[in-house]
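Sample pair:
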Amino acid sequence: MEENKDSPLVNASHHLKALEYYNAPPNNPEVYLLLAPRHSGLPLTYFQVCGNDALQDEGLLYEQILRESGVRTKIDIYPGLPHGGHFHLYDLPISIKYRRDIIEGTKWLLELKH
């Protein structure tokens, strides 16, 4: 979370407060998926990673771990977009792309599921 700890809208402090609120233990692999004992055998996974999000590196790393574990992944990255920016910065071209990609990513998941 260090690189984008002061990102707008939702920063690192907000994410950590949410984990506190849900009483999420820091070593629980059900909360921190990167800590799971294995990552192979999971279903195909679609990622949308915002480039100005405190969780950016976690998303990028988790996608890489899944891909290297043989899980089929698709990732879209949105440079400069903060966490939740597609809602709050609704008319920006990158926000419009984000929302369109949700549809395309869902289609990808459904088409490859069979």
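The two ends are 36 Å apart (CA to CA).
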